[in-house]
Amino acid sequence: CHLTDHYGDNRKTTMNLSFPDNRKTVLWIVAAGLALRLLVLFLCLDTPLFGDAHAYHKFALMYLNGESFDTIRAPGLSLWLTSWYTVFGASQVSSMLSILPFHLVLSATLYIYTTRLVNTRSALIALALISFYPSFVFHSIWPLTQIPMAAALLLALFLLDSKPTPFRVIAAGLLLGFAILLRPNCVVLVPVLGLITVLRNNHRAFLS
Q1: Dihedral, CA atoms, 63, 68, 72, 76, nearest 10 degrees?
Q2: Is 49 in contact with 95 (CB distance < 8 Å)?
Q3: Are 21 and 122 in contact (CB under 8 A)?
Q4: Rounded to an integer, what distance in angstroms lies between the CA atom of residue 39 and that of residue 34?
Q5: Angle 2-43/120-132 helices, nearest 10 degrees?
Q6: Alpha carbon separation from 124 to 22, 84, 112 (Å, rounded)
Q7: How far apart are CA 89 and CA 185, in angstroms?
Q8: Which residues of 117-137 are buried (b: 16+ CB within 10 A; e: fewer)?
């Protein structure tokens, strides 16, 4: 089918050429976004953890000390902080730095997935938005669930929308489980992700 060959060739060309041609731009955007976050973190060192951020930090310290406690909060982020503190030590700076790996995962996944779905120009715009938009910067330096949840859900969707392998299916399931541990209401998104995957697969099957 001519339509299939045309679609496949375009997709293959986009995926092969997009990242090498834009590598420097991508790295500059990511590096600038990371530098901005470190600057904001430095400026916020005199501001103590507050609200949910303070609660997650406190519960992580209690996990480290083996204390038992009751809470209505989901344990996901506190468990992540506990693991992070075990390696890097427990402090306010450590808690703020602990979210940056999720920001990097979110940035990489968003760029690669947007390139696949649309084009590299849209991917660069999306990458710039999450790198410099104030709300994303704020949530990337405080121990809160928004950025980790977004990274887990987007990476799970990316894996489910890729060629299925046992590793990708298991990894997607673990990511969805982690997202639910971060925010239990994420469970309502599981069928949504499944529906998106089915529709995408049916669309590709139709084109073939």
Answers
A1: 20
A2: yes
A3: no
A4: 9
A5: 20
A6: 9, 30, 10
A7: 30
A8: eeebeebbebbeebbeeeebb
Rounded to two decimals, the pTM is: 0.84
Q: Which two tokens stand for residue 192?
A: 């949504």
Q: Which residue from 50, 154, 63, 176 is spatially nearest to 102, judged by alpha carbons?
A: 154
Tokens of 152: 């887990």
Indicate the helix (H) or strand (E) that contains 79.
helix 76-88
Structure-block tokens of residue 75: 């344990």
pLDDT tens across 11-40, in order? Answer: 443 444 444 468 899 999 999 999 999 999
Task: Take residue 182 and report the two structure tokens written for it.
Answer: 């971060």
User: 23 is written with which tokens?
Assistant: 């590598």
Structure tokens at 17: 């050429």
